[in-house]
Amino acid sequence: MERARKRPVGQREQPPAGPYEVRSAKPPETELELLVHGVGGTTPEKMLGDPRTVRVTGDDTAAVFRRAGDAGTGPDGSGAGGEAGRRHGREPGSGPVREAYVWCNLTSGDGSRALWLLLLPFMVVNLAHWMRPAAPDRPRVVRLYGLLVRLAALTLTVLLVAAACEVALDLVAWQCAGVQDCVRRHSWLGFLSPAASGWWSAPGRRLALAAALPVTLTGLLWYLSHRTWRAYESHRPLPSATGPAGDEQEPPGDDAGSAAHGSALVRAGFWYGRRLVARLRAAHTAAGLLTVAGAVTIPAVRFDHRPGGPAVLDVLGPLLAAALLVCGAAVVTVVCRRGRDERRLDQRLDRHVVRGLPLAALALLLLGLVYAGWSRPGWRSTGRLPGDPSFGALMPAQGVLVVALAVVAGYLHRRRPDPRAAMRGLGGPAVALLACALGGVISGGVAQRVSDWLDGTRALLTGPPVLLTWQASVIPPLLAVLLLLAAGLALHTARLARAERHRVRREHPGEPEDPSRTRAIAHARAMATLTDRAPLVVAVLTATTLVLGSVALAGALATRRTPEGAAHHTHHLVRAVAETSQALGSWLVGLGFLLFVTWGRRAYKDASARRTIGILWDVGTFWPRAAHPFAPPCYAERAVPDLTWRMATWTRRTGGRLVLSGHSQGSVLAAAAAWQLPPSVRGRVALLTYGSPLERLYGRWFPAHFGPPALAALHHDIDCWRNLYRRTDPIGGPVRVPDDTCPDVDHEPLRDPLAYGRTPDHPLPAPILGHSDYQSDPAFTRERARLLTRLRPEPPDRRPGTGPEPRDEAAGAPA
Q: pLDDT tens digits, residue range 41-57?
């Protein structure tokens, strides 16, 4: 036992230790390895290599596990149960105690979560917020970037609800219910038919009844956003003051205040976005309700504005429309006014906005339903529902927002050029454009499929708006471009594989040649390089989408302006191609929608299917909901506090040394957790990453948060860091820390396979591991032992230039 230290006479007694302060009188030093798995999920038994595991702390969603033989050391690893640990077969000096943090249930679980895939456009546009280039000296421009992304996200919500209104109000209640032949084909609409002369047969009342579908959709989105936030994102981070102090008006994502650290992930409030999510949820919910109210009210206002109409309704209609415009302006103001406040743990709520804005929109919706349901003799539903120009206004608005976003991103990239940044800093605008295109194609495809289902081939209905039909028609040429691109990438990969064969032969001199083995290794290396071609794929897809979207908009405008009688003068071949493309696109969207849901449900039941889409899904839900509140929940707002609390409390209780060991996406969580640690804990934590996408994916696509300055700052804060990777790994790669004054972070590429042919150590052919089983490589154990040796027995002195010692906000003690 360590001898107690005597306090000099006259020296004041030190206050009790804070929640993460290392105690001066600590128990004997211990060692711990905290494992964090990657995408696809796993079990604690596989992570720890033992069928007997026990949960140390956590719940059914995310928890920390140990081997049953190591559980005798106590949950805090303090050595209190060391004798029990020896009885279970663990001897001193056998390596660090291993713990596994299992977080896969945050993104997987039962099959019902496959419905989150329907929120894919919201998730994609939320990614665009985090893809901006780094610019610490341009806070106003950064604020403008975040504002444009939030406005683009708002248009997606309006587009989704407007598409639901198109299906329920226009196609079903207005067109099909108003045509007797269509009602005969769908008998469940009989009570809405004018021939029935029932109370619901009036057009306004049919619209009011059909509004239940888009209103339910809006309420469901609100409920899912609220429920998932409470379940996944309401966990408070470790109380610390690592971020700079300042007022609450910091622009979203502005890294000017954290220039010393290089990344905003170091800030105390980065993983707690309660205030912004609540504001955006209220604004988007109100926008959805106002969209439904406008779809119900505008047709009645137009009918009442005719000569000879009731004077009362002729006055009430414009007043209600003006109230809708005022409330819509309030929604836009709420979205524009405030971004993320990351510099401190902001636990306030703008209750007047969170409660007042949706309630005001709901009140206007109820007034609109009553107004539309008023008796209007002589009102008949013919043609399309008035309001078709709304889709024609949304698409150009989204185009203007994306172009403005590209201008801002290009300006930020020129201020601090990063040669490794994807698409020269234009990754964010490209992803925002893809999100808008995805929302438009889904909306147009679903509307076209419902129209075909209601009408068949009888031409009883006018159909959906022309723009939605043209949007569905661009799918076949888009797929053709993607097929050509895939063929080009396949040819490039085949050439690269042939070149790799010569390198593989040179790496194994003196060994018998095995052509099939050489081809397999070369093919694995060539396939791993496809990840680096992702910017090219996104660039081609974005350019094609922009061109085809412009063609669709021009075609819709030309069709709307062309007189009906002049249609037969159009060239027959052009008409045939357009109609074929529209019909094929409609069926492809319907088929793709079903495959989308089916594949998503299978992905959460089948591990192999989940790995296929796990990369993009886990990247998308890693980031907080900063632009769209209806995006799937951010699992990192639960995982990062879990890791920081575990590391801080363990080091406080034991004074030991800890290796944070992260694989694949787990390495990104490990880096984010290390940034959140106070300096007194960082001195006792080493970082071991393997198969890590920190630079290869995150550094290129999210340069403001994982670019070269950010990774260099992480190396400065966690100077005991080692990264392992293989050339056959399609995800992991070197981190390329731009710091020549510190030891290298990247290990030389590991051999894969471990042996080319049969050897005494590998009598059977060694497998090509690629992205898996890094711990089976001898270099893993060797580098982990070196990291533990490099860790200092006492917390390092505070580095110069880091500012005053941060204090614990909860206990008031120095960190």
A: 788 999 999 999 999 99
Q: Are 712 and 262 in contact (CB under 8 A)?
A: yes
Joined tokens for residue 672: 């984010």
β-strands 657-663, 685-690 pairing: parallel
Domain ranges of the chain: 31-108+634-790
Q: What's the mean pLDDT in 392-396?
A: 86
Region 671-680: mean pLDDT is: 91
| Helix-, strand-, coil-residue percentages of the chain, each rounded to 5 | 60, 5, 35
Tokens 């960082």 found at: 682
Domain 31-108+634-790, CATH among 1.20.58, 3.30.70, 2.40.128, 3.40.50: 3.40.50
Residue 639: helix, strand or coil by DSSP? helix
Q: Determine the 3-state secondary structure of 162 from DSSP.
A: helix
Pair 451, 171: CB distance under 8 Å: yes
Task: Quote the DSSP letter at residue 115.
Answer: G
Angle between helices 139-165 and 212-228 in degrees, nearest 10: 140
Q: How many helices (H) and strands (E) does the chain have?
A: 25, 7
- Spatial CB neighbours of 541, under 8 Å, sequence gap ≥ 6: 434, 481, 482, 485
Q: What are phi and psi of 271, to 5 degrees?
A: -100, 30
Average pLDDT rounded to a whole number, residues 413-442? 91
**Could you give phi then psi for residue 757, rounded to 5 degrees?**
-120, -160
- DSSP state string for 763-804: SSPPP--TTS-GGGSHHHHHHHHHHHHHS-SSPPPPPTTS-S
